[in-house]
Amino acid sequence: MGEKKSEYTADIATHYKSFRPPLHEILLKRSFKNQRFESALDIGCGTGNSSIALAKYCASVTGYDPNKSMIQYGESHPKVFYTEKLEEINKKFSLIVFFGSLHYITTKSFNFYKEKLVRGGFLLCSDFEILYAPILSNLEITLSKIDYDHSKNLASYPTKTFAIIRTEKFKAVLDCDLNELTHLLLSETYLRPQLIEKYGSVSVVESLQEDLKIYYPKNKIAIEANLFYTYYQNIED
Fold this sequence. Notes:
The chain is of the alpha/beta class. The chain has a single domain, classed as Vaccinia Virus protein VP39 (Rossmann fold). It has nine helices and seven strands; from the N terminus they run ααβαβαββαβαβαααβ. The chain has helices at 10-18, 23-32, 49-54, 68-72, 107-114, 133-138, 178-186, 192-199, 204-215; strands at residues 37-43, 58-64, 80-83, 93-99, 117-130, 162-176, 221-234. β2 (58-64), α4 and β3 form a beta-alpha-beta unit. The longest helix has 12 residues, at 204-215. The protein is globular, with a radius of gyration of 18 Å. The model is unreliable at 1-6 (pLDDT under 50).
């Protein structure tokens, strides 16, 4: 995939497995509408939330992530096959999806994946940005600027063989409870060091939840997110 997935440890994978916000479904519905596909390659699938969401639209899904810890926690589904080995991606697909992974993809890697797409096939660049600022302000944690482009699409790569079908940026609001929010915060690699520094590595889960209870005593939190997608078709002759 790219060069940065080693930062996702087994501990972070457990938080991914425990809770991911249901934003994949929203993005896929906006992108595909009623379209269906024979096969899909989900690049950077993590613990499989995006792959499972894709299964609604596809006869089969291959979820690829170079991080073995993520793949080991992949959620089982009859339509989904997971792998951390590039050599096991040995066929062509009617759909390729970069779900929050395109930021890590080099031009060389992109060219490899592009060759896995059938002629006339489709490609989706999609991501979401959860707006944690109000929560972090309550916790007295300052969020430093991160080097990550949620809206990145194929404009960053030297290719002219894809035509845009749809592209959009929009907002969504999701509800979660304290336990879900705890897992969500601790799954973010750029937040985790600050949370551990504040609460300690041993008691970070319990201490973080105790603080969150002060500000959200009803055990319900509404979180805003920015959602992005650009949906393409391969028009190569």
